[in-house]
């Protein structure tokens, strides 16, 4: 690959890392807001945080793709280090915020219809976080409390899922009527 193309990829990585850092700041602010509103929090109050986590993850995938195209560039290692630091920030925020939110939700006697599906999606996110925590690039930057918090969050979430109402399935009802 020629030098001009490599420069283009490096510039893209730098721009995307800047955007990722901005997303991390938004995540921190949303997590702080959720913590302040913890006692009043509900499923819909958690949605903006979740959407921002998804945005962060999507942008991270784009950056990973650009890194793969960036060959032997002098700044590649420095940029990758910055990327991994932002991933650790995101992991810490997701684990801590999820744990607090799930703890609050576990105390609720009534959850909205569809809560089961939403929380099942959250469980996948926690398993993804667990996979990332085991990655050597991240494991050295996270203490044991992160893994403990993640395990606790998964346990609470599994309990919530067990009791949360699912969406109504009108498709099954139609089939029974036709008979």
Automatic annotation (TrEMBL):
This is Uncharacterized protein. The lineage of its organism: Bacteria, Pseudomonadati, Pseudomonadota, Alphaproteobacteria, Rhodospirillales.
């Amino acid at each position: 690959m020629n030098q001009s193309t490599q420069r283009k990829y490096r510039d893209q990585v730098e721009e995307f890392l800047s955007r990722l850092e901005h997303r991390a700041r938004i995540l921190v602010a949303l997590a702080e807001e959720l913590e302040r509103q913890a006692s009043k929090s509900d499923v819909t109050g958690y949605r903006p945080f979740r959407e921002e986590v998804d945005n962060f993850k999507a942008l991270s995938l784009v950056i990973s793709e650009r890194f793969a195209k960036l060959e032997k560039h002098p700044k590649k290692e420095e940029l990758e280090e910055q990327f991994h630091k932002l991933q650790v920030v995101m992991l810490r925020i997701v684990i801590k915020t999820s744990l607090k939110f799930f703890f609050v939700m576990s105390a609720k006697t009534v959850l909205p219809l569809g809560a089961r599906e939403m929380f099942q999606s959250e469980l996948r996110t926690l398993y993804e976080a667990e996979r990332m925590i085991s990655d050597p690039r991240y494991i050295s930057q996270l203490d044991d409390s992160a893994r403990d918090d993640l395990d606790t969050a998964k346990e609470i979430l599994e309990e919530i899922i067990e009791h949360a109402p699912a969406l109504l399935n009108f498709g099954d009802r139609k089939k029974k009527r036709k008979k």
